[in-house]
Amino acid sequence: MADLERTRTPSQQRRLGLLLAMAMFVLVVDTSLMNVSIAAVVRDLDTTASGVQSAIALEALVSAAFILIGGKIGDLIGRKRAYVLGLLGYAVGALAMTFAQSLLPLIVFWALIGGIGASLLLPSMQSLIHGNFEGDAQRRVYALVGAAAAIAAAVGPLLGGFITTFLSWRVGFALEVVIIAGVLSGIGLIRDVPYTGPRHIDVTGSVLSVIGMGGVVLGILVWQEGGQYVLLLLALGVLGLIGLRWWLVRRHRAGRPTLLDPDLFRSPVFRAGISGQLLQQIALGGTMIALPIYLQMVLEYNALEAGLSLAPLSLTMFAVALLAGKRAGRRRPAVIIRTGFLLLSLGTILLIPIVPRAEFGWALLIPLAVSGCGLGLLVSQLNNYTLSPISDERVSEAAAVNSAGGSFGLSFGLAFAGAIMLATLSLSFTAQAEDSTVLSPAQQQQVAQSLEVNAEVMTNDHLHDLLEGQTPAVHDEIIRINTEARPIALQTALLIPLLAALLGLLNSLRMVRLPDPEPSSSGETLLG
Description:
Layout: H1 2-7, H2 10-36, H3 38-45, H4 49-65, H5 67-77, H6 79-99, H7 103-132, H8 135-166, H9 169-185, H10 203-224, H11 230-253, H12 268-298, H13 303-309, H14 311-327, H15 333-354, H16 365-387, H17 395-435, H18 441-453, H19 460-466, H20 472-513
């Protein structure tokens, strides 16, 4: 490793780190661009919104279901080759989006091939960072890549909305292809990380991982869309994961090759790192579903204005992640992680009482900046804390689990906070309607039935259109109830990221009591 780093100039080291960060940025911003472009894609392809949403759900499902297998494939074919194939999968999907004339290319190339590309790209990228950098350089690159993912999640909707509004959604996907070509132009800077372990395929473990991860993520996606059989899908996924654990332990004890080494989870450092990653992503997902809805549905901002209002979160997150990655020095990673969760908790606590009182987006400046500082500290440390002590032989497995935990946490945060928000809105709206002296019993029953079928946060302007034909008294009463019920629902949704941040703080206290993980290059590894 040291010999390799000596063969690279400092500028080449910086360029490689930047290229890896660009790859992560494309991976995260791709879905954001698709989400904000739904209406334009439906119109241009003459298809349906449900069809495009199905493609988005399928991409998330495929990438989650195959991510554990993706790490093993990287072992078998080479981590560098898996990284290139993952980037090419994304390029094929983006190119198909640029020239698509129907829904079919979206499903085949963007959702299926792109989803498989993501399952290869995430574990292999983390493995290559582990194998191409060491010490402070490794920590800085993990921080840079984490910051790129965080800022892509934060500014992706703004960037996508701007491109879609003023240019075309096709331009956005064409730019993805250009960025991927730029990343691939520097592939010669990457040293492959060889795998010397068993090369057999654990077919049963692979199937159980698809059922487990796929079932859980599919259940979350169905829950997010208000569909049926959520509990059945979640139960199937949980049973698949339980079966996977049983199979891995049983096969490992028999001395046979496994999809993942179950001994990974015997390490308290690895368990604490994965838990921190999961909780940080739940907090980020919950925040990024509640705040855009607040800005666009309560303050009635457009996508550009909402993105600018969220800029304090994304910019401080990016700046602090870079600063912490460069200047962490001798500070213990666990202490930095503890400070990150503390600031994230504090920012969310400050945010909750502001929601019903703020009349403009910049009123959120201080709590968003505090939360952004916390998230910046977390993304600068968590990946490095979790993976740096893992040996090269086991790093793909560990990176796949780490990526799966992060993806699951983000999906869960988005879905759970969204579900809690809509449930609270329905209960609050119904309760206030039943207490109303203006609405008749029949009207109260109509409100309850409508919310039971289709509860959603909507602007007062949208509600004005829906109430056309009602008497002025009924019209004003429904507007009043909507005005009062929305902040309660949004405050309740923000309790999800707050709870995740507080649990992360408790988990970080356990990290502080553990000895600092030794980098694998030092010869002291968690798994050799």
